Amino acid sequence: MTHKNISQQQLPLYGRAVFTEGVPKTSIPENPMEPDTAYQLIKDELALDGTPALNFATFVNTWVNDWAKRLATENLGKNFIDHEEYPQSNLVEKRIIWMLGELYGTQFESADTDPDTAKGYYGSATVGSSEAVMLGLIAHRKNWQTKNKKNPNRSPLDKPFIVLSTHAQTCWDKYCKYFDVGALYIEPKEENNYGITGEQVKALLNTPIGEYHPINENDPTIQDICEYPDDYPSLQTRTVGELVSAIGAIVGTTYVGSSDHVQDIDSHVDSYCQERPSLNVDIPIHVDAASGGFILPFVNPQMNNPLPFNFKDGKRIQSINVSNHKFGMTIPGMGSVIFRNANVVQNNWGQSKINNL
Ligand SMILES: Cc1ncc(COP(=O)(O)O)c(C=O)c1O
Q1: What residues of the chain score a pLDDT lower than 50?
Q2: Domain termination site, one of 49, 67, 86
């Protein structure tokens, strides 16, 4: 039997013709490849990745039981975003969002008593907290644009900004780059347990636009970003808060696991807004509970307030994200964004109703 008479299946995998001909890396191959060859080839390539079970870096859950794997495998063929075709998957998503809304104090419409029939839009499953942070912030940016139209002092040059800790996870910086939003950083201090405080946030919001200095002196000023001319008259009278579309508060930072002082930030932001009734300033807080959202409510329920970041206690908290695939015991990738009520998204998107993102 010559080599030519042996079927490809009988040959050792890396002795098959496809490997002597070469496997193209940059173009679609001329000839098909046996499925088991493709499987082994890609499996061996992926072996060069890190080992998930040894990855403690992003806190992602690395083990699920066989039932979870089975369920995931059985549903691989579904295009999850197609709610028309896969309404039952959408109901499962809505029930998860509802449970999280219950946990964090979402204000459901009185007519909405059951996730299966609810008309209000309360949040979304995502591929992780990065997407969830972005969806929350996009909603707030949109609302800022709508509300800012009512600010009598506004300039057509105004741009939206967010306030955030220098300890914010990289997805916040990505959001700013992708969606053309400026970042105003605050440095958490050791004496505040590495969390940013209400006083720090309010001081920043109260700063006249012309006097804002970024922490990193190489970063642009607000004046640079908005391209206000030097003689723009309101640089000293308008304050930074008028340009802020959202404030980020982290519950469980990626670096040291500390939390921003969410309730303190909430009351200081509220007082900043209350002090300016004529400007229609209404700054929302987005809580990044990627890591802490499934820990704090459960580790110590006897604590004075194990949920210092919920919608009930925080007047200005409009959205919360959590990573189901971190401490929610779910296979990657899954995160969630939860809204305070059904008005955060649907009132200001230029469409009559949005019921998915
Ligand atoms: C505080 C915080 N926010 C956001 C993220 C991003 O989460 P994901 O990896 O689920 O996209 C992380 C991940 O470590 C995080 O710790």
Answers
A1: 1, 350-351
A2: 49
